[in-house]
Amino acid sequence: MQRSVKIRGLGLAMFGVVGAFAVQSGLAADKPSKAEMEVDYRQSLYTVIGGNFGPLGAMAGGKVPFDAAEARLRAERVAFLAPMLKEAFPADSNGVAHTAAKPEIWTDTAGFNQALQLLIDRSAALAAATNGGDAAKIKAAIGETGKACKGCHDKYRVKE
Ligand code: HEC
Q: Whose C-alpha lies nearest to ligand 1, atom 40?
């Protein structure tokens, strides 16, 4: 506690010098805050996860033909990226203007962590299934992973 206060104090002192210069030169308006960058990082992670999960969903739903190699590549990417979400919800990114993350993420931490762990586990199981090459099993595992996405969105993401 003591320590973080001191560090914040130092940050403010530095802002006094650097910030004054930035305001004067018109840079302050363009530079996103630390919290805004944290939201950008989180949304970028989800965008890449979504970009890779989309083709899997299309295969499971029969919208595109099933392709075992493509499924494996996409599933491995999602399984690799999902655990990175653990670092993507720092407390100061709560309530930033352009975030769709609900405040419940930081009040119901246990519930949120459980929803995130479900994605991590199911995407790992999906990646493992793609090594077997059994289309029916892979499609079922895609469905289970998709439910983990939806379950969390329903509870912890602001609806568009
Ligand atoms: C543990 C909760 C959780 C899980 C699981 C989850 N999401 Fe999300 N997702 C969120 C939250 C919260 C946001 C809003 C992030 C923000 O705006 O800060 C989000 C945002 C997104 C976005 C929008 C990103 C942007 O640019 O604003 C996409 C796309 C997305 N998720 C796809 C997925 C897919 C696909 C899955 C499953 C493979 C998934 N999510 C699983 C919580 C989750």
A: 149
